[in-house]
Amino acid sequence: MVIVPSKNEYGMLLDILKINGANTTLAQRKTFATRAFGVSSHYDKAIHMWFESEKA
Known about the structure:
Blueprint: H1 10-20, H2 26-53
């Protein structure tokens, strides 16, 4: 399974699929996962900061 964090990565994934069919390497999946966690951590931090600001 590959997580595609944004439409900006669609082209990269399509290139991989054109070359390898429906197969991805562990390194490729780790690259996509790293990017996905980068995106989600940004949102998590923003939500955390909002809750922190609402404490007062």
